Amino acid sequence: MAELYLDLALVDRREVLDVAASASGQPAYLLEKDVWVVWSLDTLFAGPLRAPLVFKGGTSLSKAYGAIRRFSEDVDLTYDIRALVPELVRGRLDALPPNRSQEKRWTKAVDRALSAWIRDAAAPALARALQVVEPGGEVAVKASDVFIRYAALLEGAGYGRPEVKLEFGGRATGEPAAAMEVRCDAADHVRGVQFPTAKPRVLRAERTFWEKATAAHVFCVQRRVRGEGFARHWHDLVRLDDAGVAASALADRGSAGGGCGTQGCVLWRKGCVGKVGGLQGGGGRRFAARSRRGRALGVGRRLRADGGRRVVTRRSGAV
């Protein structure tokens, strides 16, 4: 019978990770962190919280879809706005502020309700669950982010910080999404050990493509430096193109809908309404880095949707 990884003595956990690292070629400290990423997802989606959450972002592309190969340490989660502030949504199918004058009111209400849920429900539940499997760990809250800090068995740098960052948002419905299985990277390389698994509701990869394309567009139009980490959006867009997700997203206009189909809603959810323009609607959508900053970044591909039928790509070798 397989032993549970989290029931093993610390010295045995380290040995298991060393075996998995040797077999997989991945650093052992990242495999350890990956275990806590999966544990966090399982605790959120299968634990007592049972909140209307959806797993999204780069980590979902890696863990659920296998579409990207980079290690993504942050876990992006959306709390369904329809459940978070039902008094504002009131059955609106698009779950969006009816006009610009209501945007600030909605934003404040969402932030207030989300902070209260994190403080009163999510963080305490995660802390209780963590103490069962990792008595030396702790849960910390900063604004709408929750940090799961564990006692590292192995040393790392950069992405190797012994913590998992859960980034919560509440400006979207999280649709379209479906339950998908998520496993630890080490699981395929060690026999006789059962690692944590999770089955979160995951945002469709095509929808994540549109969110990342929008983020890239906003960056280029605003011409504001946001740090090197923002380059991940271009990396992920290229990988999504390689995986066929970009073509699927561009061919299916519905993947940009359900709360992401108009410039106003996308930019409200990015906190940029009234500041950014340039998303073409009607016959198609076009995301291109026309600004000087976009050209300086050497955007790896130019993605264009003509009536939702084709993708024009241009490699620069910069991604």
Write up this protein:
The protein has 319 residues and is of the alpha+beta class. The protein folds into two domains: 3-203, no CATH class; 205-304, no CATH class. 40% of the residues lie in helices and 14% in strands. It contains eleven helices and 13 strands. The chain has a five-stranded mixed beta sheet. The longest helix has 31 residues, at 103-133. The chain is globular, with a radius of gyration of 20 Å. The chain starts with a strand and ends in a 15-residue tail after the last strand. The model is unreliable at 258-267 and 272-319 (pLDDT under 50).
Main beta sheet strand tally, sense and closure = 5 strands, mixed
Distance between termini? 45 Å
Work out the helicity level: 40-55%
Radius of gyration: 20 Å
Give the SSE string.
Answer: EHHEHEHHHEEEEEEEEHHHHEHE
Average residue pLDDT: 81
Q: Widest sheet: strand order?
A: 2-3-6-5-4
Count of the domains = 2
Please tell me what the overall shape is.
globular
Content of β-strand: 5-15%
What is the strand tally?
13
Distinct helical segment count: 11
